[in-house]
Amino acid sequence: MSQTKRFKQGVSIFLVLTLAIGMFSGCGGSAQTPPSSAAPGSSSPAPQSKVADVQQQAQSSDDFDWKQYEGATVKVSFVQHTVADAIVSKLPEFTEKTGIQVEYSITPEASYFDKLSTSLSSRSGDPDLFMSGAYQLWDYSTAGFVEDLGNFLGDASKITSDYDFEDIVPSAVAALRWNGIPGYPVGEGAQLALPLAFEIYSLAYNTRAFAENNLEVPKTYEDLLKVCDALQGWNGPGSYAIALRGARDWGTIHPGYMSTYANFGAVDFAQQDDKLVSMVNSPEAIAMTEFWVELIKRGGSSSWSNYTWYEAGADLGAGKAAMMFDADNNGIHQNWDGASQEAGNIAWTVMPVAKEGDTPNSNYWTWAMAMNSASKNKDAAWMFLMYFTSKEFAHYASVDMNSLDPARTSVWDSDAFKSKMAKQPGYIETYNATIDSTTILFTPQPYFFETTTEWAATLQDIVAGQYGSVKEGMNALKAKIDKAVSDIDLSAYY
Amino acid sequence: MPKLNVSHPDINYNEVPKNIRMRPYYIIAPGLLILIGILIPFVTAIFLSLTNYSFRLPHWKLIGLKNWIDTLTDPSFYHALWVTIKYAVFSTGTQMILGTVIALLLRKDTRYSRILKVLFTFPLMVAPAIAVLIWQLMTSNSIGVLEKLLNVFGVFGFPWASSHSTAMFTAVLIDTWVNTPFILLLVLAGLQSLPKSPFEAAEVDGASRWFIFKTLTLPMLKPFLYIALLFRLMASLQEFGIIYALTKGGPGDTLMNISLTGYMTAFQYQRLGSALPYLLVLWTIVNISAKFLVKRQRKLAKQAQGY
Amino acid sequence: MSQQTQLLDSSQNRKTMLILEDFGRNLGLTFYALFALFPLVWMVICSLKADAEMYNTVFVFTPTLDNYKAVLLGTDYFKAFFQNLVVSGGAVLLTVVAGVPAAYALARYDFKKKEDVAFQILSFKFAPEIMVILPVFLIFQKIGLYDTYFGLIWVYQLITMPLLIWVVRGYFEDISVEVEQAAQLDGYRWFDVFFKTLVPLIKPGLVASGLLAFIFAWNSFTFPLVLSGFNIQTITITSLRYIASDTVHYGQVAVAALIAVLPEITARLFIQKHLVRGLSFGAVKG
Questions:
Q1: Is the ipTM of this complex over 0.90?
Q2: pTM to 2 decimal places
Q3: So what's the architecture of A201-363+444-492 in CATH?
């Protein structure tokens, strides 16, 4: 009897001990790490012109000591993307040039950020570098997980004179800067990442569909709805007018929806006292959402609420959708020779606006590379970053490996790229007509995932008629978003 | 040599030498140690549910029962609970009935049934996330093969996972496709273990098929059915993979069960502390219902041995 | 005379009944077979279709092996395949080595709280993975088990061990104590008795539950997603990667998924004669 008792005691002591070790070494660790460099209020070194000065003092690529971190190992998290394929194919060359070993993981997009959030939160330093978009970096930098790359861009000993920072598309660089203050627009503060590729939003359409039905490519919202009526069932049963994203995640909100939202004059947040307040039930926002719901009902797929970017793209390529309002590079991959049924028939135009001549404001998405502030190999990681954001690599990634849209102006201007894109009618023209009015249209705040997921869910409910009116749905959404951002206290920043 | 004490339950422990008395613990120790190592996270989870732990906060602190109160006063918690129960009942129920019926149909030993017994287990081997992908491709309205099939029957644009009214049906359908073989295997095992004599006796007495099924087959199968029910019900109460891959809980909040709500809160919204009450409630529900089923099953199994 | 016709009639009826029954049964089985097998057939078909034909063709198309080439030659698919084999195989092995003795103890000995311990072990199978994964992740980072074979094999015990203990325990309970005692009287030590007498008797249950454990481990998604990635890749996550980088490649996913089920199907055919029988004793009496 006493034996079993002692055994039991032993077990419970063991349990408590291991628990204690687990708790304090495993989870309490976070208490020791102060938020790192890119935290709110940190200085903002190296705007673009300053980097140019720094570059002048720096050594040329030939003199630069690429081998100074020989033997180091850098860990990189990639999402499954063409630019990741391009980088992976060049890793042997990178290792040969620098002596730095690279370990990497590639994760499918649907699970990528969940995995990344977990890894970063451990503060173990793994991964040293990770792919991200600007929105996610608002979350991560608020937590202090992101290194300010200004520390490297502003240091003549760490950069080569021919890196040509100004060549990186300026609006993409600006989209990845933020000073960490919720509600404060991007473009100032820490450089959270450098762009690898980006996308803007435009209307892709099937020229055959428009020619066969004697239709004009729509330029205004009104035209768009009319064309939708004409194109339902244009290519046999199951075919429809316009492919849009509708899945229950942030991806549904940021492309066409957010761009049009801004074009209606709506904003997502306003600042009231020390709080961010959701504006999704403003008259503009309601009018816009009413239009959007109308668009889905009159022209969208009946499985709209399951659509992510690749279902939308696949339908355009298969000749099921006659148009797609989505990322400009989405349709491109359907249009290469032999890539899909409708390859060769797809063309691009600027997104519809209220009336002809209005500025097409487009939202921005960048796939960028950011550095973990807990990394133990920051200098070696910077080498990687500099190498794979270089002109040469950008050229290779876009021209040879189909990574789009290129983040460097020199690639857009190169003949090789232009001739490659000659088979994509309207793509470059649309880009040129849109890029100057392209910026991040979301208000930066650290609850991006939560607010946009709720937004997408509410949109699904509205389209399905679960609310009496769009207004009712947007009112309910406002309450949810306000609750999500309720613990932001702006007085802490001023 | 040590005597096994199973046949002498009233043996006095203190008369047995120590090394033998402790033997059960030695033998079970490796297995238990491995599992206890994994038990730590459970206790950690309970502790963290009392904190404001979040990936994005540099510091965490104890906040008492706030997470629990927030959860239990949130209407979306009760919605999630309702979805969880509805999904579990539908999917487990469908699979139990289908699995049992197919097992009974396979009972007669023909060449056809022997081949089918092997083939029918194949869907169980497909990872749920991949299974969803196959079904998404087949059920797509514009490009799916099932749409073309339904068109033949005059049905156009069946909405599958994209509509509030059919999303649950679609998820259950995929779940059924993957997991019915599990039940099928167990019921086949049960049928094989049935003694022959009571059935022969009943047939000689001219009892009807239905009567034999009701009074002999079903009661004797019960322990097997309980095991199948136990494993499937517990799994479907916390179904995550199929629903997440299919609609991420949509459309709207149609399929947001407790697992999904907890996962989204913890991993996407990065508020682990507020997610844990959801998951701990789920764990409690699962544990209590499992305990009930296990007790019933052990009792039935002992009765069944009496036949 | 009339009696004879009646007899004839009833035997005639019986015959029609039997034919009808056969027909009905085969019809039911065929319907289920369509439901269970068509998606797999469809997967094979998709694996042979080029992207351009994926959406516009049903059964008539020009088959191509491009998807196979792209997956097998163009990527590190095989690396993930073998790493998955190591992790899943290792997990099943550890489960057997540690689980069988535990099952034995739970079947043979009466000790305090036995039923509670048995239930607790089983209940691990029913714990929400999502709940344990974050603490496990934090601890693994601390003690260096993150992204290691052993770390994954250990955490897989949560999904592999409970079922095996449960089934095998039923087998041990079914073996009469006299078998062991007889062997002991012959002068065998307990250890020898265990391996020479008992293990052969539990074999069907062991292989059947071993197979199910292997399937659970092989298809696991959440644990390897969070707990590995740089050194170790597993097959489910890798298969999903083929969906999309530029466009959606259902054909390549189909190839990856088809090759991923091969080890399971091979194992299943190997233990064909044990599978159903193996679950028949253990599962119930456990």
A1: no
A2: 0.89
A3: 3-Layer(aba) Sandwich (3.40)
